[in-house]
Amino acid sequence: MTKMPELVSLFNGMGGACAALIGLMEYEHNKGNTMAISTIIAGMIIGSVSFSGSIIAFMKLNGTLNKPVRLPSYNVVNTIIMLVLLGIGAYVSYDQPAFIFVLALFALALVYGVLFVLPIGGADMPVVISLLNSFTGLAAAFGGFLYHNQVMLTGGILVGSAGTILTLAMCKAMNRPLSNVIFGAFGGGAASGSGPEVNGSIKIYPFQTQLF
User: Model pTM?
Assistant: First the structure.
């Protein structure tokens, strides 16, 4: 049972990889259909982020990466990469360039998934796994849109919504807003989870024994 969280993370990554591979395979077959290409690109980006992020989460839970890696200004770097991903994704969706741009987008999404999870501490891993699980469900839902598959669409929506609700519940329990989760501010300091300050002095009274 102690290995179940990392197994769940690994299975979740495989689901994201499937969504990303579907996008790579279907891009050339749907050129000229802007709506289909937009669905493909969205599913590929989200699935790639979920795949690489879940693999890093698996390695952290497995003990291979037992310490969070703090990159210089990693919040700024992650935000820039996310904006670049959105910009390239929009360009590919509407202009539909050569397949090499899709491969570059796929590689950049994998890098963002790694950088997204890499700084996260071990105590916060359940939150990010739940968030990545919702990403995988969302990527599967885009696949359902593409193939007009109601079962795939419904399953993806259920997984995505359940993962989002669970993520919000965990954030509320940990007294951390969701914006900190999205922008990678995990384990930023002990103050985020500390309780109210206790003032005053504590007196310890010795035990009194009575004989009956």
Answer: 0.80
